[in-house]
Amino acid sequence: MKNFSLSLYAFHLRHTLTELPGEVVTNANLLWENLVKVGESSLTFVGLKDLRSKLICYQNGKYDPKREIGRIPERLIDAQDLDLGSLPTPEGFKINANLQPFLLNDTYAVDLTLVPESPNISIDIPQLQHFKPSSLLPSNIQASLGQTLSIYGEVEPTEDCDTLAKKLAIALVAGTNLNPIRIQQGKLFGSLLFEYQAVNPDEPDNPAKQCHILIVINNSQAATATLAAEAYEWLLKLLCSYHKILYIYQQARQRYRDARIIYSNLENKIQEFNSLISENQTQLSGLKSLMGEIPKKIFDYTRCLQDLQIHHTTITTNITNYTTCLEKIQTIDGGNSPQSWQNFINKDCKKWQQQIQTDINYLTPGQELFGQFVDTIRGIVETEQTERDRSLENTIQILGIGFGGGAIASGVFTTHIDKINLPLVQKHPLYASLTLSIIATLIFIALGWLITKRK
C-alpha cells in the first residue's frame, strides 16, 4: 500500500449534566495522560511525550480545564495541528506523526495520525508493526466513549482487497484478545471501505473496550484523500456521534437492569407489607422498618428512570447529529455514502431508541405504584401510632382518676377510722383502712374508664 496512513480517533467524556460549569468528570484528562504514556513507552515521538505543554487545558504540566472556558475554536491547541516529530524504523524509513486535539461540546476528541515520511514508500502487512498499532488499542488509550482505528492506502487494481483488509484488521490487534469481525463493506469517496468491530470477549457489550476499525483501500486512483480532507470535520463528528450512541445505549441498558433489580426488591417489600397488615395485630415496628428502607430504594428507582429519560434525549440528539454529518459527507461525495452508515441510522439507532422508550414506559407505572405504597404505609403507621398514643393517654387518665380518688378516699378513711363503729374496723383499723382505700381506688378506676369510654 502506498500513500499509507494509520489514524487513531479517540473520544473521551469531559463532563455530564451533573457537573457545574467549569467542573469535569473524574479522570476527564485520562485521554491526554494515556497519550503521554504511549509517547514515553512505545511511540516515543518528542511531541507526544511533551503533549501537556501544548494543550491549553494544561498549565505548568497540571490539568486545568477552566482554561478552556470561553474558548470558541474547538481545537485545544493554537495551531491547525501539532507536529509530533518522526521516528526511525529498522527498514530505513521514518514515520511522521501529527496530532489534532478537540473539545466537541462535552467530549474530548483526538486524531493521532502516523504516516511514512514519503507517500511513495510501500507498506505491507509485516511493516505495519513498525507503526506499533498495539499501543493505540483500547487497553492503552482507555477512551471512555470508544475509539476508531482507520487505515488508508492505495493499491493496484489487481489487488485482492478483501483479503488485504482482513489481514490488516488481524494485524492491528495482533497479540491481544480482541477478535476483529467484519460488520459492513461499502464505498467511501470512491474507495473500498471495510468496517470491522474488534470485540473484547471479556466485555463484549462494552463499547469502550472494543476497537472500531475502518480500512479504506483505494484501488481505482479515486480522489479519496482530497475528498476526505474536505469532509474531515464531518467525518470526525460523525465518528464522535457514532461512539456516543453506542455508549449511551450501553449505559441505558445498565440503568434498566439496575431499575429491574430495585423493582424486584420493592415487590418483595410489598409482599412483606401484605403479610404485616393481614396479621390480627398490625406490627407497628415492622411497618416502621419498611418505612426506613423503602424511600431510599424508591429514590434510587426514580434516579434510574430519570437517567433513562436523559439517555433517550441524548441518544436522540446524537442521532440527529450523526444524520447531519452523514448528509454533509454525502454532499461532498457526490450524493454517495456507505450504505452501512445509513443502515446504522435507519435500523440500529431506531431500534435502540425505541428500546429505551419501551424501558421507560415499562418502568414508569412502577414509580407511581411505589409512591402510593409509601403513602399507604405512612398513613397506616400514623393511624396506628395515633391509636396507640390515644390508648396510652386514656390509660393514664383512668389510672390518674383511680389513684387520685383512691388517695383522697384513703385520707378520709384514715382521718375518721376511729369514728367507724364496726367490730372488724375497731379490731384491725390499719387493715380496714387499707382495704377501704383499695376498694375506693378500684371504684374510681371504674369511674374513670366509664368517662374515657364515653368520651
How does this model look, in words?
With 455 residues, this protein is an alpha+beta fold. 55% of the residues lie in helices and 18% in strands. It is built from eleven helices and ten strands. The chain has helices at 30-41, 46-49, 125-128, 138-141, 161-172, 224-230, 232-278, 284-332, 339-416, 423-427, 429-454; strands spanning 2-13, 58-59, 62-63, 82-88, 94-104, 107-116, 146-154, 179-188, 191-199, 211-218. Strands 4-5-6-1-7-10-9-8 form an eight-stranded mixed β-sheet, sandwiched between helices. Helix 7 runs parallel beside helix 9 and helix 9 runs antiparallel to helix 11 (429-454). The longest helix is centred in the C-terminal third of the chain and has 78 residues, at 339-416. It starts with a strand and ends with a helix. The mean pLDDT is 84.
Q: Structural class per helix/strand content?
A: alpha+beta
Strand content: 15-25%
Shape: elongated
Radius of gyration: 39 Å
Strand order of the largest sheet: 4-5-6-1-7-10-9-8
Discrete helix count: 11
Q: Give a quick account of the main beta sheet: strands, pairing sense, barrel closure.
A: 8 strands, mixed
Write a concise synopsis of the structure shown:
The chain is an alpha+beta fold and 455 residues long.
Note the main attributes of this structure.
455 residues; alpha+beta; two-stranded antiparallel ribbon; elongated
Secondary structure elements and their pairing?
Elements (H helix, E strand, L loop, with lengths): L1 E12 L16 H12 L4 H4 L8 E2 L2 E2 L18 E7 L5 E11 L2 E10 L8 H4 L9 H4 L4 E9 L6 H12 L6 E10 L2 E9 L11 E8 L5 H7 L1 H47 L5 H49 L6 H78 L6 H5 L1 H26 L1
Parallel strand pairs: 7-10
Antiparallel strand pairs: 1-6, 1-7, 2-3, 4-5, 5-6, 8-9, 9-10
Helix pairs in contact: 7-8, 7-9, 8-9, 9-11
